[in-house]
Design a protein that fits this description.
Layout: E1 2-10, E2 13-15, E3 17-18, E4 21-25, H1 32-42, E5 46-51, H2 52-57, H3 63-75, E6 81-85, H4 91-99, E7 104-107, H5 109-113, H6 115-124, E8 129-136, E9 139-142, E10 147-148, H7 154-163, E11 169-173, H8 185-194, E12 200-203, H9 209-217, E13 222-225, H10 227-230, H11 236-243
């Protein structure tokens, strides 16, 4: 299973939100480039960068910072992949983000609101367009987690997104995001069982090596960790070993 480190950009710095609530910041934020350098030097192979300001406003805000992060990632040996989400509601925003150096984009609100938009992007940039399905109590959330999207079962929505060409599906339990409470293993197992051929990535509440081993054991393709890597409570080396299903002696 791939370990993916989250860097959420808010007011130009790396920060985390508790349960996707913009009024609940977990700290004052830190230098995003410095954090990226730390994660890359520790062995992270993929960075998951979310422009939270962009997600809230509906258009990318931190393109210049994404360009700098992409340069850091691609200068590593071996190069680190950079996936970017937040505020990409039209093809121009996707194109700009990819041109800034992102290897992949992660759509959210726009893909759920208009599957045709996702299909068009996936056809134009094959293999470079994933989707984040953000759930609270099983219901999709959009506009930076601030609004519930009514209608549709989460698994059926996931199937529709993948059929439209999403290269990967990030399943996020927003209620656990930033809380270090552990992932919803039942939710993740349900998606894994229903979508055996899909590239599935778990997110939300992942904070320990045991959490990672549980997700790896059920066959998830990737796991996004944010707060635990940001505050160094979960060392990168320990997290990488857990993704390989290694158990400390």
């Amino acid at each position: 299973m791939e370990l993916i480190a989250a860097i959420d950009l808010l007011d130009g710095r790396a920060n985390r939100l508790a349960q996707g609530d913009f009024t609940k910041r977990l700290g004052l934020g830190e230098d995003a480039l410095a954090l990226a350098r730390h994660l890359i030097s520790a062995g992270i192979g993929r960075l998951h960068v979310i422009d939270l300001d962009g997600a809230r406003t509906g258009k990318p805000v931190h393109t210049d910072l994404v360009t700098l992060l992409a340069a850091e990632a691609h200068a590593a040996a071996p190069p680190v992949r950079l996936e970017v989400g937040g505020g990409m509601r039209d093809a121009s925003a996707v194109e700009t983000t990819l041109a800034s150096g992102a290897d992949e984009v992660i759509l959210g609100t726009a893909a759920l609101a208009d599957v045709g938009f996702l299909a068009d992007c996936a056809a134009r940039w094959p293999g470079q367009v994933g989707v984040s399905l953000d759930l609270r109590d099983g219901s999709p959330r959009v506009d930076g987690w601030t609004r519930e999207l009514a209608g549709g079962h989460a698994l059926e929505i996931g199937r529709t997104l993948l059929a439209a060409g999403a290269s990967r599906l990030v399943v996020t339990d927003v209620s656990r995001d930033g809380m270090a409470s552990g992932p919803d293993l039942g939710l993740m197992a349900g998606f894994r069982g229903a979508l055996p051929e899909a590239t599935l990535v778990a997110a939300g509440g992942i904070a320990t090596a045991d959490h990672l081993r549980a997700l790896a054991g059920m066959g998830m393709d990737g796991a996004i960790v944010g707060r635990a890597l940001l505050d160094r409570s979960l060392p990168v080396a320990e997290a990488l070993a857990a993704c390989r299903m290694e158990v400390p002696a």
